[in-house]
Hints:
By secondary structure, this protein is an alpha/beta fold. Helix content is 37%, strand content 16%. Strands 4-13-12-11-10-5-9-7 form an eight-stranded mixed sheet, with helices on both faces. Strands 1-2-3-16 form a four-stranded mixed sheet. A three-stranded antiparallel sheet has the order 14-15-17, covered by helices on one side. Strand 11 (235-239), helix 8 and strand 12 form a beta-alpha-beta unit. Helix 3 (92-104) packs parallel to helix 10 and helix 11 packs parallel to helix 14. The longest helix has 22 residues, at 323-344. The radius of gyration is 21 Å and the shape is globular.
Amino acid sequence: MKYQRSSQLFKEANAVIPGGVNSPVRAFKAVGGTPIFVKKAEGPYLYDEDGNRLIDYINSWGPMILGHAYKPVVEAVIDKAKKGTSFGMPTEIETKIAELAVSMVPNIDKIRFVNSGTEACMSAVRLARGFTGKEKIIKFAGCYHGHSDSFLIQAGSGAVTFGSPNSPGVTQGTAKDTLLAPYNNLEAVKAIFEANQNEIAAIIVEPVAGNMGCIPPVDGFLEGLRSLCDTHEAVLIFDEVMTGFRLAKGGVQELFGIKADIVCFGKVIGGGLPVGAFAARQEIMSHLAPEGPVYQAGTLSGNPLAMAAGHALLTALNEDDEVYERLAQKTAYLHKGISKALTTYTIKHTINRTGSMISIHFSDSPVVDFATAAHANNDRFKAFFHGMLDAGIYIAPSAFESWFITDALSYEDLDFTIAAVESVAKDL
Ligand code: KE4
């Protein structure tokens, strides 16, 4: 059997870890089958415990933008580890990566490092509430900002509605302060502001969504959110955990020329180690402890190994003026090839793409929000996922995820992938 060792390891894991995984999406629940256990990875390739080589289009959900085991990152971590792994005291490397991040991203004066994207987004909302003195937040159905209670809120239907918890353990008290709108729907956001005059502390948004598949903002959407926040004195939080340092040096703020008030980071900023961060202009960050009253803390925040990994990766991205164009061109090439292959077999599909984020939806209508993403033929996606896996290609184990392209991919890898799509498409 092709995944015998992974199956055995999954059985052992299930005996001591809930669902056998430390993050649910890894369990393949959305696509069925046994999750793949990775033995090692290098460049664009994963090597699983059964000796299969897979071309990786997830790249740890974004961080591996220059490939797995990227030498400068590995060497930086080894070098740091020899000098101790954690002190709970300030170190110079934290300032170095902070200075670099602030130099790369517009509209931020200061940055606070934490240990995950969840922590970054959770802390950003608390800071926005502390800064504005208001309590409610607006998020978008289908956008994911981590597993903090305020974010695990699912509307009933797509229109403006009070949130209701979509996870046990989230209280009604929490849910009432999270209001939902459909992504790309400015009218719904306007209605929420009208119905909650002077109560909205912030909008938190994935400025290019990646948790419903990849969904770009429609023209005017981000500009409209900016204008509504200015009118209603609310904070605009860009959750750039996925897009930060991936879509451009300065992320979506640079790509679309829109100013956020607070920006959240994760994934790439840590070079594959546990790092999240949130950043803003001094007027807002001065409210954060110990400078200000909004409390936030973390034993391993600014961990020297994680900072060294992130600093090495951001340095490489910052010094290469062509990397983002190369990534965008490779993703466009993949898009064209996959679409041609699927069209050959008249497979209804739509492909969304921004920079090095891309997703395939088996739907003949545009995918612009959660409802249209959910409308796609996701049974067909399951068959596609397993066909690609058997062909040696690892794509997102869910239709509600984006793929993440790494610059380590060669055009031969892309052609191999396109050929695999063609071979799988004929049986879809
Ligand atoms: P983490 O806490 O998982 O580091 O980050 C949460 C988060 C926040 N914001 C955005 C836009 C995110 O995409 C994420 C996490 N992304 C998922 C992938 N869709 C992580 C994978 C997982 O949950 O295992």
